Amino acid sequence: MKKAKRCLLAVVSGVLVATAVLSGCGQSKKEVSKNDDHLTIYLWENRLMKNIAPYIHEQFPDQDIEFIIGNNDTDLYSYFKEHDELPDIITVRRFSGTDAQDLQPYLIDFASYDVVSKYYSYAVQYYKNAEDEIQWLPICGIPQTIIANKTLFDQYGIKIPENYEEYIQACQQFYDNGIKPYSMDLGEDWSNNEIIQAAAIGEFTNLDGIEWRNGAETAADEVKFDDVLWKRIFSETSQFLKDSHFGKEDINIDIDTGTQMFVEGKSAMFHGHPTVMQQLQKQMDAELIRIPYFSQTSNESYVYMTPSLNIAFNNNLEKDREKLDTALDVLDCMISEEGQKLIADGSGVISLNTDVPTMMQDVPGLEDEIKNNAVYIRYSAQKSFDASLEAVHGLLSGEMDETQAYDTLRSVMNRKDPEEKAMVNFENEYSISLNDRNGRDAASSILTTIREENDAQLALAPYYYFTSSMYKGECTNSRVGMMTAKSSDTALYFAKLNGKQVCELVENYLVEADENFYVTNKYELPIASGMKIIVNQAESGFSLKDLTVNDKKIDKEKEYSILLTDTTMSVLKKINPKCEIEQLKDTTLSSAWIEAMSKGQQPSAPEDYIEVEQ
């Protein structure tokens, strides 16, 4: 696919640059990753590994492409850049220009490539920096709306609201009938971030709001606030909370509690994207419909939209035209109709690509907003989540008035992060890239450390729970945490199997890890510890040839304790349903790794855990 580089007229006047002086691990000049010609793509969660990665491999079977799990935080890529190992393609979901400013010198300017001309102008209005560069692009939009139980509305003779005044009336009528109008999960930071912007969505979409947003996205130091605008925003936020009959008790409502209240008919409205609504519909004998967010200052309504992911390219790709063309082909694949559906995990996708028709046919209730492009792209700077939570909880508890809540949000947004002390001083360096034996040394070190900490003889985990190389020198708590996939963390499980059952587990994992994901190439091979798996590779895939423990063939009769993750536990449960599996309570892969390193100890050395024969 030919990609002609050319200058394009700027499509918008928004902005995106980014800040954050990030504390990090000690510098190391030693390169720990292999420098080869394959394309490396970091995806921010493992759901994308299961959805979009196989599709891209299918579209480009002759291209050498490696997908690695990342974290939903641009600091992970700052960490890589400090060690000259920024991947070719990076993605995050929670993002604003202020979060990625230190990466700006190292990213490609998409404004110089044809791909930007395929985007609607509103979709990239906040993705242009002060140098007229567009270094990040959203892939597609996911509509986040109010979900209403229409059956419950009809039962009580309550009109489905079409503007804010009617929303107030509906909430009051449900409240008078002893039903909670809206069970929003305000124990979660993302919902507090949403509620401020959705409650005052008319303010964020007017000229003052757009001007503030443009400035916030390009703030080089602190985010400047328009006091007049933000006092209106908090007045409307406070009013929305009161009109919706939210109170102190909502502070502790998490996603599970809020969902359950709605499913049981104890609340009339919840919120979520189309996949959430589909899941709710399966659980409820009721008709569900979508309601947009209403402006309090006009009769306008809007779809609150969350980008499924934001993507950037390492500008080193421009030194290798063939590799860059492959990367651009991958980007084209992602913004295709099928690519967007896979990334958004289903129907109800707001296409940002002018070449792709609307994919909202199966999402009734938002026709007017979509037709009129009344779509608001959420502001999601990393600090905005904590800031929103503190401010909204202050209003709900009664401990803050509107002015105090605004002051709190502004203060948290501009609060300087305290300098982190080193958690551990790594004496060795291990790479997350494949070594000559097709193993990942960093992942092996982490898994072996966790296995030994939990007194297990063996361990088996998918590759996509491990994100980062381990660099020699001092490293902070947050950077240690980024070495595992915190955005897609997994519980840990313990089982006892004989050698034959261990072999069956590995055999089945290689064939089919779960219904959505299986091993198709060397990059997707599992991480093992306490054992070595010898694998045959053929055109049809991979198969287990042999398995050794302590350099000897595994004893088929002997019992072994084995540590598992969600995926490997599911495979075991499928092939051996009677097997007793114990979950390690309050322990995840990430928390176990952080806990081990918090003791100041060195991680275990990597093992020679895999060998691929062709």
TrEMBL record:
Which intervals hold domain 5'-Nucleotidase C-terminal? 448-567
User: Where does the UniProt annotation place the signal sequence?
Assistant: 1-23
| Keywords noted in UniProt | Cell membrane, Lipoprotein, Membrane, Palmitate, Signal
Q: Which domain of life is it from?
A: Bacteria
InterPro entries reported for this sequence: 5'-Nucleotdase_C, 5'-Nucleotdase_C_sf, Bact_solute-bd_prot1, SBP
Q: PROSITE patterns given for it?
A: PROKAR_LIPOPROTEIN (PS51257)
- Give the transmembrane ranges: none
- Pfam families, per the entry: 5_nucleotid_C (PF02872), SBP_bac_1 (PF01547)
Tell me the protein's name. Answer: Carbohydrate ABC transporter substrate-binding protein
